[in-house]
Write a structure and sequence with these properties.
The protein is of the alpha+beta class and 485 residues long. 45% of the residues lie in helices and 18% in strands. Strand 5 and strand 6 form a beta hairpin. Helix 1 packs antiparallel against helix 12, helix 2 runs antiparallel to helix 8 and helix 4 runs antiparallel to helix 7.
């Protein structure tokens, strides 16, 4: 599962959770300003929290008294038993394409509505009324609305008995920059259009802004009963722009009138808005607890190393081990060199191919102070043949550059995931003449950084030769970077 999919899953879950909290506890409150802040915080938290890795912060701030060995989970090394990447990648591309198409259509609609407002502005006559209040009079608009600091009135609104109320209403929208909230809601619906909770939040934002404007009108001294009658009788007809500006008349007029007549919430009820704090903590814990299950996908390359610290006691009491070190140990030549070594060395056992065994083998080992490897073990047994193959390759590794703490060598525990995946053809051993294809073009793996890689797949000799001719006779490494997605 790619990082982008993981991000959208977490963000959408956060939108659902926070909307349920809002709808359950705050929907009927009369603290309209607090509700405005709360709704905007929902948009911020849901989009930002999946990007925050609390586990990294905790691992760098834990006491070394309770920790002994630092564990690093390296990226998956995918070993394919034959050609192709299966239909999963094609299906994901279709999903990506469909989602982008939906977002593109909504963005185009958003732009069209913006253009419609600009056209209204260009074709409007600017005038000042009621003591110098600046308004615009469009020729083809039958309603009243505001967009940021711009107030638009139709001639019918200008001549009507409720003119002062309409202007007061739109001034509240304009002076409090309600259009910012509307625009944020529109953009969230474009990015997360498949999530119904985002659309519901957008609706709550718009309704709450109308509550704020209604309260502002009544605070200005207008008659409460007369204002409600004017609300019922007034309607804006320019619906194309109504989604982006603050329309005086909304579909939920009944709710507005009920809120005008509702008894104000008690001040003590403001304290329940502090529930936002435990909500943030819950999301942070959820994000951290799900990191381990989402950071090692079953069939894709993990682009970044994940640092995990665990309280493991040292088996050798003569050597000192630490939970956190200043410089992490490194395979000779770096991560890319290690991946190339593994891809050129690993064989897919023939017995495992016959038995159709596939999946991930986790090999754990310790990089000692002298750079040697020890304590190799299998964390999850997949099959005896695949387990032994993964151990064999790790034992063939050359001496590492040891990790250092305050300038001195230290022991570090590593977990290396090796993904065995079956396709159609049987695998044979590769050599150092492996062809590397990066984003469809022949390239050099040493020239790209690990964090730039999104997916990597290995085609063994026969499959590589069939697809790339003699160039792929010794195996092919297919690399897809994040830039290419």
């Amino acid at each position: 599962m790619s990082p982008l999919i993981v991000y959208f899953l977490k963000a959408n879950l956060a939108f659902a959770f926070l909307y349920i909290v809002y709808w359950t506890l705050f929907r009927k409150d009369t603290f309209f300003t607090l509700k405005r802040v709360f709704l905007l915080m929902i948009f911020l938290l849901a989009t930002v929290f999946p990007l925050i890795d609390v586990g990294v912060w905790m691992s760098t701030n834990m006491s070394m008294v309770n920790m002994n060995i630092h564990e690093v989970v390296m990226p998956d090394i995918v070993v394919s038993s034959g050609k192709g990447q299966g239909d999963g990648g094609i299906f994901l591309r279709w999903i990506y394409g469909f989602y982008v198409l939906g977002a593109g259509i909504l963005f185009l609609r958003f732009v069209v509505r913006l253009v419609s407002i600009i056209r209204l502005l260009v074709g409007s006559k600017c005038t000042r009324i009621d003591g110098g209040k600046k308004v615009y009079l469009p020729a083809n608009c039958a309603g009243a609305f505001s967009f940021f600091r711009l107030i638009f009135l139709s001639k019918a609104s200008l001549d009507g008995a409720e003119r002062e109320e309409i202007i007061a209403h739109e001034q509240v929208h304009a002076l409090q920059f309600h259009s910012v909230d509307v625009m944020i809601g529109e953009l969230m619906c474009i990015l997360f259009w498949a999530n119904p909770f985002v659309w519901l939040l957008r609706l709550e934002v718009r309704v709450n802004l109308e509550y704020l404007a209604d309260r502002g009108v009544l605070k200005s001294g207008f008659d409460r009963k007369g204002y409600q009658y004017h609300l019922i009788g007034f309607a804006a007809k320019n619906q194309a722009a109504a989604y982006l500006y603050n329309n005086f008349n909304v579909l939920l007029l009944k709710k507005r009138i009920m809120m005008i007549n509702k008894k104000r919430s008690r001040s003590i009820a403001r304290t329940k808005y502090l529930i936002l704090i435990p909500s943030v903590v819950f999301l942070a814990v959820l994000n951290n607890s799900s990191a381990s299950s989402l950071s090692l996908p079953a069939d894709e390359f993990v682009s970044k190393a994940v640092v995990v610290a665990e309280p493991v006691l040292p088996q050798d009491k003569k050597k000192t081990v630490y939970s956190v070190v200043d410089e992490m140990p490194e395979f000779p030549g770096g991560d890319m060199a290690m991946m190339k070594f593994l891809q050129n060395t690993i064989r897919y056992p023939s017995k495992a191919v016959e038995q159709k065994k596939e999946g991930r083998v986790l090999v754990q080992f310790v990089v000692n102070e002298d750079g040697s490897l020890s304590d190799q073990q299998i964390l999850n047994s997949l099959s005896p043949e695949l387990d032994e193959e993964a151990l064999r390759v790790v034992r063939l590794m050359p001496q590492w550059t040891p990790g250092k703490l305050t300038g001195k060598a230290a022991s570090v525990k590593y977990t290396l995931p090796v993904m065995f995946r079956l396709t159609k053809d049987k695998t044979v051993m590769t050599d150092n003449k492996t062809l590397v294809i990066i984003d469809g073009v022949e390239g050099d793996m040493t020239k790209i950084k690990p964090e730039e890689i999104d997916n990597i797949t290995v085609l063994k000799d026969e499959a590589g030769k069939e697809k790339y001719g003699e160039r792929g006779a010794h195996g092919v490494i297919l690399v897809t970077t994040k830039k290419a997605k």
